[in-house]
Amino acid sequence: MPAPEDFGVEMVGVPEGAAIELDLRLEAVLEGVLVTGTATVPLEGECARCLDPIASTFEAEFQELFVYPDTRSGGNAEDDELYLEDDLIDLEPLLRDAVVLALPLSPLCRDDCPGLCAECGIRLADAGPDHRHDVADPRWAALRDLAAGTAAETPERGSGSPGARGSSDRREGKQEG
Ligand SMILES: [Zn+2]
Ligand SMILES: [Zn+2]
Fold first, then answer.
1. φ, ψ for residue 87, nearest 5 deg
2. How many Cβ atoms are within 10 Å of 15's Cβ, its own excluded?
3. What does the mean pLDDT of the chain come to?
4. Cα-based distances in Å from 167 to 10, 69, 156, 172
5. If we measure between CA atoms, which residue out of 66, 67, 45 comes closest to residue 56?
6. Least packed by Cβ within 10 Å: which of 32, 69, 70, 143?
7. Confidence band (pLDDT; 50, 70, 90) for 44?
8. All residues at 6 or more sequence positions from 154 whose CB lies less than 8 Å from its CB, including other chains
9. Phi, psi of 52 (to 5 degrees)
10. pLDDT score at 82
11. Where does this protein have compositionally biased stretches of type Low complexity (predicted)?
12. Ligand nearest to the Cα of 52, by number
């Protein structure tokens, strides 16, 4: 069957209209029809670390009872019970539970994907193990900001507060007038 729209999660899913292959067994039971099966779906998405495109297939197994509309399933009736509608079975909610809920929220192109360089954004798998940047220690960067701010702005506010709180929540940049 063709995949319905929006069949996936943010980073990976089944393209709309792509072929979902179903292997189904339908069994008549007392209350309705027991559906057991396997769905094989094509997946497309992006690696959560390096943003490379991902293309693979995913196999999901499922089993669900579709009850006749006039069947009362005794004391343990549940609200999310699935019903036969005019002798038809709507597989879509079943497939969404089996496939979409099983998809990884952070799919990877491969298990050990090294991702992107935090400094320049290059793909680390391409750049090689020697790729690095000579960056100043980030702890010194906060100090440098503090020194620059104190020199340019109001020196009387800068000396009073302890400097260890970092630079992001300083309020001394507020301008008057
Ligand atoms: Zn990757
Ligand atoms: Zn880099």
1. 65, 15
2. 17
3. 82
4. 34, 65, 17, 10
5. 45
6. 70
7. very high
8. 172
9. -65, 145
10. 87
11. 146-166
12. 1
Query: Model confidence at 133, in pLDDT bands (50, 70, 90)?
Result: confident
pLDDT at 172 over 60: no
Query: What span, in angstroms and rounded, lies between the C-alpha atoms of 109 and 9?
Result: 16
**Residue 50 and residue 109 in contact, taking contact as beta carbons nearer than 8 Å:** yes
The predicted structure's pLDDT at residue 3: 95
DSSP code of residue 11: S
Which amino acid makes up residue 157? R
Q: How far is the CA of 168 from the centre of ligand 2 (A)?
A: 25
**Residue 12: which H helix or E strand, with range?**
strand 12-14
Domain ranges of the chain: 7-114
Give the ligand whose atoms come closest to the C-alpha of residue 50: 1
- pLDDT band at residue 12 under the 50/70/90 scheme: very high
Ligand 1 mean position, distance from CA 11 (Å): 12
Q: How many residues does the chain have?
A: 177
Calculate how far, in angstroms, residue 144's C-alpha sits from the geometric centre of ligand 2: 23
Q: Could you tell me the end-to-end alpha-carbon distance of the chain, in angstroms, rounded to an integer?
A: 68
Question: Mean of the pLDDT values across residues 89-102?
Answer: 93
* pLDDT at residue number 152: 55
**What are the φ/ψ torsions at residue 149 (nearest 5 degrees)?**
-65, -40
Is 51 within 8 Å of 118 (Cβ atoms)?
A: no
